[in-house]
Amino acid sequence: MNLFRIIYWVSTAILSFLMLFSAVSYFVNPEIAVGFKHLGFPDYFRVELGIAKLIGSIVILIPLFPHQFKEWAYAGFGITFISAAIAHSQSGDPLSMVIAPIVIFGILTVSYVFYHKTKSVSVLST
């Protein structure tokens, strides 16, 4: 396994774990519902986002999904993290709540870049 694949799989595993943990928390942790209300979002958005995070993390993690599905999942996560940072910033939350989604966006970016690098290496080696 080359270095590109290792970086891809480590970043993707971390990202998927964070999204799966987050999605499950959306459904079982009552404090999350309070947090969504604090940000000004309706409760159905919490459920919708939880389902989207579950689906997106599975799509990114499992290699059998088509490339186009993965692209949409990466884009959706990117929009989610940027929106989360903005929402926390505008709601007067502490800086740590603003920085956390930006850090996860960085992990997403690493996963995305190395996803494409592993694809280009696979094409070149065949």
Number of helical regions: 5
Q: Mean pLDDT across all residues, rounded?
A: 94
Gap from first CA to last CA? 15 Å
Q: Helix share of residues? A: over 70%
Structural class: mainly alpha
Which sheet architecture does the biggest sheet show?
Answer: none
Could you walk me through the main structural features you see in this protein, from its secondary elements to its overall organization?
This protein is mainly alpha-helical. The protein contains 5 helices and no strands. 87% of the residues lie in helices and 0% in strands. The protein has helices spanning 3-28, 30-39, 43-61, 67-90, 95-125. Helix 1 (3-28) crosses helix 5 and helix 3 packs antiparallel against helix 4.
